Amino acid sequence: MKAIVVGSGGREHALAWKLLRSPKVTEVVCIPGNGGTALLPNCRNVAMAETDAEGIARCALVNNISFVLVGPEQPLAQGLADALRSEEIRVFGPGKKGAQIEASKAWAKDLMAEANVPTAAAAVFTDAESALLYVQQQGAPIVVKADGLAAGKGVTVAMTLDEAISAIKAAFSGQFGAAGDRVVIEEFLTGQEVSVLAVTDSQTIRPLLPAQDHKQIGEGDTGPNTGGMGAYAPTPVMPPALLERVQKEVLEPTLKGLQDRGIDYRGVLYAGLIVTPAGDPKVIEFNCRFGDPETQAVLPLLETPLEDIVMACCEQRLASMPPFVWKNAAAACVVMAAEGYPGDYKKGLAIDGIATAEDAETVVFHAGTRLSEGELTSTGGRVLGVSAVAPDFSSALAKAYSAIDKIQFPGSYYRRDIGHRIKRHESAPDG
Ligand SMILES: Nc1ncnc2c1ncn2[C@@H]1O[C@H](COP(=O)(O)OP(=O)(O)O)[C@@H](O)[C@H]1O
Ligand SMILES: [Mg+2]
């Protein structure tokens, strides 16, 4: 069986890596892939834009591909899956309509209200005046969100009224382009954030192991938000009983809401949740694809072949699939970034030591790298994600950090406190 993975980040490297762990998968084509997928045995990069529907369809047909797995949200939001499906190609990822659940926060809020899914109270605005009036009535803290895709930069958690006011003005002055034409203003929630990635064939939905990400660049969760600086799975913040509530209160009603809108959604539905101090899960947002870096922590624990799950979703056989099998272990992924990220940073840094860092339980996923004439260099702010599996969290973290010690590139930066929330949880289970 051959597959195409669309995208070029650590998530896509992890997806290709996991597919190729199965003897049934003989080749993965990454479009466009990165230095890590270039080095992966039986994996081949094809230089093509991830939104090039015609090119990807041709590549799928020429190579007799069993399915296309789409990593990032942008091509899904632009209708890549619809275009491929119209050529009878199996696709794991929703069409343009379903992708609105991520591409429009107002649309997602509407669906949640109709489907009775617990989420922060919110109001949607199309002009600055009424939005400003609203925050003045509500007061701070309050959260201001550009409606559309803004590469993780569209949300301001405003602790003061002044911050909320400038966020509203920025969005309506076009800082996020059309993504800011509408603004969602919502209630500020406190609690721990958990990512529940679920897979669906549009009829049945099943969660993967819950994970936690670290959004901020600085230790102790300080500084600006990033694409994600590290993750681990599973998380004690979401024990099985709570995950069961997420299934019943969030995933199933949301899938029903999609069905009620006539949407055939096959792929990942990612629920970004907050577990409130009262212990209730509430939705912060939905994504229409695998999370990055959560995928780099979740997939190393998955024993079930990924292609079986993907094929079952594409062919609407998820209900008859046996329960997914997981390693009875923990995984941690620590991201190594270029100095300066998420602000300005250098590219083209030479990377060394990956081969010595890897072992049977440790894998280095490439995020922003390229391989050219045998030289591995950086191309992005997030450069690598070092994932390790071990019987418990502290050993998985220790393993990931000791692997990091063997990897060098100039000015590399990583957070030393990945997992700090679990450590706190372990010492104060009720906290
Ligand atoms: N209602 C909220 N209360 C508190 N924090 C929030 C709320 N909504 C979002 N956040 C914070 O802002 C981050 C980004 O918001 P999110 O809706 O996930 O947007 P995106 O991922 O598209 O940038 C979240 O990970 C969370 O830390
Ligand atoms: Mg988010």
Automatic annotation (TrEMBL):
Keywords: ATP-binding, Ligase, Manganese, Metal-binding, Nucleotide-binding, Purine biosynthesis. Its cofactor is Mg(2+); Mn(2+). One of its GO terms (molecular function) is phosphoribosylamine-glycine ligase activity. It holds the Pfam family GARS_N. It comes from Phormidesmis priestleyi. Its EC number is 6.3.4.13. It comes from the Bacteria. Belongs to the GARS family. Residues 109-315 form the ATP-grasp domain. It catalyses: 5-phospho-beta-D-ribosylamine + glycine + ATP = N(1)-(5-phospho-beta-D-ribosyl)glycinamide + ADP + phosphate + H(+). SUPFAM superfamilies: Glutathione synthetase ATP-binding domain-like, PreATP-grasp domain, Rudiment single hybrid motif. It is an enzyme of class 6 (ligase). PROSITE patterns: ATP_GRASP, GARS. The gene is purD. This is Phosphoribosylamine--glycine ligase. GO terms for biological process: 'de novo' IMP biosynthetic process; purine nucleobase biosynthetic process. Pathway: Purine metabolism; IMP biosynthesis via de novo pathway; N(1)-(5-phospho-D-ribosyl)glycinamide from 5-phospho-alpha-D-ribose 1-diphosphate: step 2/2. InterPro entries: ATP-grasp, ATP_grasp_subdomain_1, PreATP-grasp_dom_sf, PRibGlycinamid_synth_ATP-grasp, PRibGlycinamide_synth, PRibGlycinamide_synth_C-dom, PRibGlycinamide_synth_C_sf, PRibGlycinamide_synth_CS.
